[in-house]
Description:
- With 182 residues, this protein is mainly alpha-helical.
- The protein contains ten helices and no strands.
- The protein has helices spanning 6-19, 35-47, 53-61, 64-67, 72-79, 81-90, 98-109, 114-133, 141-156, 163-181.
- It is globular and about 50 Å long.
- The relative contact order is 0.13.
Amino acid sequence: MTEASPQALLEAIDFAAHKHRHQQRKDAGGSPYINHPIAVARVLAVEAGITDASTLLAAVLHDTVEDTNTTFEELEAAFGVEVAGLVGELTDDKGLPKEERKALQVAHARDASPAAKRIKLADKVCNVRDVHRNPPSDWADDRRVEYLDWAERVVAGCRGAEPVLERIFDAEVAAARETLAG
Length: 182
Protein backbone atom coordinates (compact mmCIF):
# COMPACT_ATOMS: atom_id res chain seq x y z
CA MET A 1 0.00 0.00 0.00
CA THR A 2 1.28 3.38 -0.93
CA GLU A 3 0.13 6.59 0.65
CA ALA A 4 -1.86 8.92 -1.59
CA SER A 5 0.01 12.03 -2.64
CA PRO A 6 -1.81 15.37 -2.69
CA GLN A 7 -0.91 15.68 -6.38
CA ALA A 8 -2.50 12.33 -7.28
CA LEU A 9 -5.65 13.13 -5.31
CA LEU A 10 -5.97 16.53 -6.98
CA GLU A 11 -5.54 14.92 -10.40
CA ALA A 12 -8.32 12.44 -9.61
CA ILE A 13 -10.59 15.20 -8.27
CA ASP A 14 -9.93 17.32 -11.36
CA PHE A 15 -10.67 14.33 -13.63
CA ALA A 16 -13.87 13.43 -11.78
CA ALA A 17 -15.02 17.06 -11.60
CA HIS A 18 -14.62 17.39 -15.35
CA LYS A 19 -16.47 14.15 -16.02
CA HIS A 20 -19.33 14.95 -13.61
CA ARG A 21 -19.48 18.67 -14.52
CA HIS A 22 -23.02 18.56 -15.93
CA GLN A 23 -24.48 16.37 -13.19
CA GLN A 24 -26.27 17.21 -9.98
CA ARG A 25 -27.24 15.19 -6.94
CA LYS A 26 -30.90 14.32 -6.35
CA ASP A 27 -31.22 16.53 -3.26
CA ALA A 28 -33.71 19.40 -3.29
CA GLY A 29 -30.96 21.94 -3.96
CA GLY A 30 -29.42 19.95 -6.81
CA SER A 31 -25.92 20.14 -5.36
CA PRO A 32 -22.98 19.51 -7.73
CA TYR A 33 -22.42 15.79 -8.22
CA ILE A 34 -18.68 16.06 -7.55
CA ASN A 35 -19.48 16.74 -3.88
CA HIS A 36 -20.41 13.05 -3.52
CA PRO A 37 -17.15 11.37 -4.63
CA ILE A 38 -15.16 13.94 -2.66
CA ALA A 39 -17.28 13.14 0.41
CA VAL A 40 -16.65 9.40 -0.06
CA ALA A 41 -12.88 9.96 -0.19
CA ARG A 42 -13.13 12.28 2.82
CA VAL A 43 -14.95 9.65 4.89
CA LEU A 44 -12.22 7.15 4.06
CA ALA A 45 -9.29 9.50 4.75
CA VAL A 46 -10.55 11.69 7.59
CA GLU A 47 -13.04 9.53 9.45
CA ALA A 48 -11.45 6.11 8.90
CA GLY A 49 -7.80 7.16 8.59
CA ILE A 50 -7.25 5.33 5.30
CA THR A 51 -4.25 6.64 3.37
CA ASP A 52 -3.88 3.98 0.65
CA ALA A 53 -3.48 5.76 -2.69
CA SER A 54 -5.46 3.33 -4.85
CA THR A 55 -8.37 3.28 -2.40
CA LEU A 56 -8.63 7.07 -2.18
CA LEU A 57 -8.19 7.60 -5.92
CA ALA A 58 -10.82 4.96 -6.72
CA ALA A 59 -13.17 6.58 -4.18
CA VAL A 60 -12.96 9.89 -6.03
CA LEU A 61 -13.43 8.12 -9.38
CA HIS A 62 -15.95 5.45 -8.32
CA ASP A 63 -18.91 6.79 -10.32
CA THR A 64 -17.11 8.02 -13.43
CA VAL A 65 -17.62 4.91 -15.58
CA GLU A 66 -21.12 4.25 -14.26
CA ASP A 67 -22.44 7.79 -14.64
CA THR A 68 -20.34 9.46 -17.36
CA ASN A 69 -18.77 8.59 -20.70
CA THR A 70 -15.52 7.48 -19.02
CA THR A 71 -14.06 4.11 -20.02
CA PHE A 72 -12.03 1.70 -17.91
CA GLU A 73 -9.23 2.06 -20.46
CA GLU A 74 -9.20 5.82 -19.87
CA LEU A 75 -9.01 5.30 -16.09
CA GLU A 76 -6.26 2.73 -16.46
CA ALA A 77 -4.19 5.08 -18.65
CA ALA A 78 -4.59 7.97 -16.24
CA PHE A 79 -4.55 6.23 -12.85
CA GLY A 80 -3.30 2.67 -13.33
CA VAL A 81 -4.61 -0.87 -13.41
CA GLU A 82 -5.32 -1.13 -9.67
CA VAL A 83 -7.48 2.01 -9.53
CA ALA A 84 -9.35 1.06 -12.70
CA GLY A 85 -9.93 -2.43 -11.26
CA LEU A 86 -11.36 -1.02 -8.03
CA VAL A 87 -13.67 1.28 -9.97
CA GLY A 88 -14.71 -1.79 -11.97
CA GLU A 89 -15.68 -3.61 -8.79
CA LEU A 90 -17.88 -0.67 -7.81
CA THR A 91 -19.53 0.02 -11.16
CA ASP A 92 -23.13 -0.94 -11.84
CA ASP A 93 -24.16 -1.99 -15.34
CA LYS A 94 -26.63 0.75 -16.28
CA GLY A 95 -27.89 -1.49 -19.08
CA LEU A 96 -29.65 -3.64 -16.47
CA PRO A 97 -32.98 -2.78 -14.83
CA LYS A 98 -32.64 -0.85 -11.56
CA GLU A 99 -33.93 -3.67 -9.34
CA GLU A 100 -31.47 -6.13 -10.90
CA ARG A 101 -28.58 -3.68 -10.37
CA LYS A 102 -29.58 -3.27 -6.72
CA ALA A 103 -29.75 -7.05 -6.22
CA LEU A 104 -26.33 -7.45 -7.84
CA GLN A 105 -24.81 -4.89 -5.46
CA VAL A 106 -26.01 -7.01 -2.55
CA ALA A 107 -24.76 -10.23 -4.16
CA HIS A 108 -21.36 -8.87 -5.22
CA ALA A 109 -20.52 -7.16 -1.92
CA ARG A 110 -19.31 -10.37 -0.26
CA ASP A 111 -16.86 -11.17 -3.05
CA ALA A 112 -15.42 -7.67 -3.44
CA SER A 113 -11.82 -6.94 -2.55
CA PRO A 114 -11.16 -5.38 0.87
CA ALA A 115 -10.43 -2.00 -0.74
CA ALA A 116 -13.65 -2.10 -2.79
CA LYS A 117 -15.58 -3.01 0.38
CA ARG A 118 -14.09 0.00 2.17
CA ILE A 119 -15.11 2.32 -0.67
CA LYS A 120 -18.58 0.76 -0.77
CA LEU A 121 -18.93 1.30 2.99
CA ALA A 122 -17.90 4.96 2.68
CA ASP A 123 -20.25 5.40 -0.30
CA LYS A 124 -23.16 4.02 1.71
CA VAL A 125 -22.24 6.23 4.71
CA CYS A 126 -22.44 9.28 2.43
CA ASN A 127 -25.67 8.14 0.79
CA VAL A 128 -27.33 7.43 4.14
CA ARG A 129 -26.26 10.86 5.38
CA ASP A 130 -27.85 12.40 2.29
CA VAL A 131 -31.05 10.36 2.65
CA HIS A 132 -31.23 11.44 6.28
CA ARG A 133 -30.18 15.09 6.12
CA ASN A 134 -30.79 16.22 2.55
CA PRO A 135 -33.00 13.69 0.75
CA PRO A 136 -34.32 13.94 -2.78
CA SER A 137 -37.36 16.19 -2.69
CA ASP A 138 -39.57 13.52 -4.25
CA TRP A 139 -38.68 10.80 -1.71
CA ALA A 140 -41.39 10.13 0.86
CA ASP A 141 -40.39 8.66 4.22
CA ASP A 142 -41.23 5.11 3.10
CA ARG A 143 -38.84 5.47 0.12
CA ARG A 144 -36.12 6.65 2.49
CA VAL A 145 -36.70 3.64 4.79
CA GLU A 146 -36.58 1.36 1.75
CA TYR A 147 -33.18 2.82 0.85
CA LEU A 148 -31.88 2.27 4.40
CA ASP A 149 -33.05 -1.36 4.32
CA TRP A 150 -31.29 -1.96 0.99
CA ALA A 151 -28.10 -0.18 2.11
CA GLU A 152 -27.95 -2.44 5.17
CA ARG A 153 -28.16 -5.51 2.92
CA VAL A 154 -25.27 -4.22 0.79
CA VAL A 155 -23.17 -3.38 3.84
CA ALA A 156 -23.80 -6.83 5.33
CA GLY A 157 -21.57 -8.18 2.57
CA CYS A 158 -18.86 -5.66 3.40
CA ARG A 159 -18.66 -6.45 7.12
CA GLY A 160 -15.18 -7.25 8.35
CA ALA A 161 -13.43 -4.95 5.89
CA GLU A 162 -13.21 -1.86 8.10
CA PRO A 163 -14.74 -1.79 11.60
CA VAL A 164 -14.49 2.02 11.88
CA LEU A 165 -16.57 2.51 8.73
CA GLU A 166 -19.05 -0.13 9.87
CA ARG A 167 -19.58 1.74 13.16
CA ILE A 168 -20.04 5.03 11.31
CA PHE A 169 -22.52 3.41 8.93
CA ASP A 170 -24.48 1.83 11.78
CA ALA A 171 -24.66 5.14 13.65
CA GLU A 172 -25.84 7.00 10.54
CA VAL A 173 -28.53 4.42 9.81
CA ALA A 174 -29.71 4.51 13.44
CA ALA A 175 -29.92 8.33 13.37
CA ALA A 176 -31.82 8.27 10.08
CA ARG A 177 -34.26 5.65 11.34
CA GLU A 178 -34.82 7.63 14.55
CA THR A 179 -35.61 10.77 12.56
CA LEU A 180 -37.94 8.91 10.23
CA ALA A 181 -39.73 7.20 13.15
CA GLY A 182 -40.14 10.47 15.03
